[in-house]
Request: fold
Amino acid sequence: MTRLGSDVARCTRLVLVLVALFSAPANAQNDAIPAFQKIDSMEARVQGCVTCHGQSGQGTGNGYFPRIAGKPAGYLYNQLVAFRDGARKYPPMNYLVAYLPDPYLREIAEHFAKQRPAYAPNEATPVDPATLARGQALATRGDGNAGVPPCIACHGAGLTGMEPGIPGLVGLRPAYIVAQLTRWRVGDRHAAEPDCMKRIATRLSDADIAAVAAWLSRQPAPANASPESANLTRMPLACGSQR
Amino acid sequence: MMRTGAKIGIAVAAIAVVAVAAVALLRPKMLPIPAGGARAVNATTQVIDRGEYLARAGDCVACHTQPNGAEFAGGRAMPTPFGALYVPNITPDDETGIGRWTADEFYRMMHTGISRSGALLYPAMPFASYTKVTRADSDAIYAYLMSVPPVKLANRPHELRFPFNNRDLLLGWRTLYFKEGEYVPDPAQSAQWNRGAYLVQGLGHCAMCHTAVNALGGSSESKAFEGGMIPNQNWYAPSLTSNREAGLGNWDIKDITALLQVGVSHRGTVYGPMAEVVFNSLQYLSDEDVEAMAVYLKALPQRDAEPPPTSQARLVAPAVMETGRKVYERQCAICHGDEGRGHTPDYPPLAGNQSITMASPVNSIRMVLNGGYPPGTRKNPRPHGMPPFSHILNDDEVAAVVTYIRVAWENSGTPVSPAQANELRKLLPE
Reply:
């Protein structure tokens, strides 16, 4: 290809990428294609993340890969460090970040924490009304008899998380939520001690987990996607990641 | 009326004040502080500092530390074709570590592969390389290891299959593959070359991966640095003696040093197990030592007798080539360039990159499937990375795009098949 031809090709690709970026809701498949404006930028440096998490961390078509955009930087940083050191196990992530130093992981976390891309449409999985009602009850009122506090007590009234260490839950898909709660319950995933999520997950049944995941994944995009400020409210259980 | 004595006293006092002020202002220049801070560097400190540096050069930490575990406390499982080895605790704990070892015993272990107890070490411990380490360097590493915090963690027994669980068999292995002896400088070569040879052959233990391992787990000296698959890791360690693989004969010294110490260069980027080596070891070596290694590696005799093959593009079905080109344009070109030249050093070139064209396509296929970040190093703390494509491209597309980059732009690689892509897809990334 000639120099001119290659420039034309590059411009065409850029235009296509820009079109993809600004058409909402963005096409998930195109969001997974590497694209950036300037090599010496965080945007270029995080291209290693985009085929699974999307250009702005909004997630992609695959239901297992979570939205990471707008989650608190402290939470994202804790996860990156845990993946690197093997405390959280998911081989594709463990492999990718294995040799990245703390300050760089912090910068990557802050990059995605600042992103505010549009939310993908909810996944319309069939669910019966009773399950949905149980999910709503767990998420908004908890289960006093089981000692399960409501999700919204810590993850925010709008389910957008809380600074510095509690992730937003809105915009996550059921496959991911079920997998995480289950892994917490069996001791495969942990957070900093005292591990409040472990206490909660071990009090949930399989049916509870399916119900709360179904209800959470159906929640509409919040007006304000930012996490709540740190510790404005008293938390029902002590959480190591909030210290 | 002021007496002369008092006048002199005032004058002296004034001079003293000016002198003190001058000393205070000029202090950094008048009283040079030794490099590395105000710390008084006594002989012990010098030896321990040197030992720490040499332990980095030997990359002890990589094997003797469990992920997320205490440094040097061992316990890490090392899968081998013969079963799992559990790496021992080398912190100076008296009961579970090497706290009671003497410098003599430590040197005997490094030099001969015989433990304090008299047991023969399995050659996962690279004593076939460490035997080249001088007594003085062994003593410095010993002094450093004695100075780190002791950790009480009992060694876990190995889980080797019969008959490999019988250490007496190692006598045979040692006869075949182990030659004891410190490095002997070659007087025909420069001091720099000899320093590089000492580091590459000794503490660097490069031959552990870059020399093919046979069915007995041994590497033959006549095949030194000729490359081979790394057992249980499923990465191919390229030959250092072929310019068609990782031979560095036609590289500039500055590109070799960058690859080793920075992790990225204008010719290529480290990935897979080599990223670990750069991250834990090579990035900490001095510019002089890395350059010495580069000089030695560049001078290794190259074994390519015949001229490199021409592009194999004509062997590829046009439809496969077209699929590969389309995938490349869509997914790869933004970083690696329309003509495969990359945006170096952040995104490596693919055209003319030996790592792409070498006989084994394993590494290229794995990179397309799993992506990867180069190590974050002191000279490149924020590396650019490549995303995984295993969930986006099917086996036909992976094979087509890897075939494309191996034959396009006059590259002289050979085509790969969807079956090869499928086989590597089944492996977990590591």
About this structure: The CA atoms of residues 178 and 209 of chain A lie 6 Å apart. The radius of gyration of chain A is 19 Å. The mean pLDDT of chain A is 87.
